[in-house]
Design brief:
Blueprint lengths: L4 H15 L4 E2 L10 E13 L4 E13 L5 H15 L9 E15 L6 E13 L1
Parallel strand pairs: 1-2
Antiparallel strand pairs: 2-3, 3-5, 4-5
C-alpha cells in the first residue's frame, strides 16, 4: 500500500487557498502577519476491509488570529471547514477519500494572552485505487 498522507496534505492546502483568503504555511512562520493558517500533525494507521485497502488519517490544521475576541478565528475555522468538506478532495488517480469530516475543534487563547488559536482535526478514510 502507498501512503496517501502527502497527497492529502497537498490537496488540503490547495483547497484552503482556493476557497479562502488565508495564507497556509507548512510550519509556524517567523514574523508572519496575522491571521494565518498552519498545517499540523498527521496521524495515520492502516484501514482495510474486504473490498479495499486504505488508511485512516487524522490531519490537524491550526488557525492563528490576533483579533480582539473570537470572531476572526471562528470565521477562519468555519471557512476552512466549508472548504474541506464542501466536496471530495482531489487526491489524484491513486487514492479516493471514502470519508472526510471534522473530528474535533478547539479554540484557545495562547500563552501570550492575545493570540486566538483554533485547532481543527479532520478525519479521513482514504482508499487506494
Amino acid at each position: 500500500m502507498k501512503s496517501p498522507t502527502l497527497v492529502l496534505h497537498e490537496a488540503q492546502i490547495t483547497r484552503i487557498e482556493a476557497h479562502t483568503d488565508y495564507t497556509v504555511y507548512d510550519e509556524n512562520p517567523q514574523n508572519a502577519s496575522f491571521p494565518y493558517v498552519t498545517m499540523g500533525a498527521v496521524t495515520a494507521k492502516e484501514w482495510c476491509d474486504k473490498l479495499a485497502d486504505g488508511m485512516e488519517i487524522y490531519s490537524t490544521i491550526h488557525v492563528w488570529s490576533r483579533y480582539h475576541g473570537r470572531k476572526e478565528a471562528e470565521e477562519m475555522s468555519d471557512a476552512i471547514l466549508q472548504a474541506l468538506t464542501s466536496s471530495p478532495l482531489n487526491l489524484g488517480s491513486s487514492f479516493l477519500a471514502a470519508l472526510d469530516r471534522l473530528d474535533s475543534y478547539n479554540l484557545i487563547i495562547d500563552i501570550d494572552g492575545k493570540t486566538r488559536h483554533g485547532i481543527l482535526i479532520f478525519k479521513y478514510l482514504i482508499e487506494e485505487n
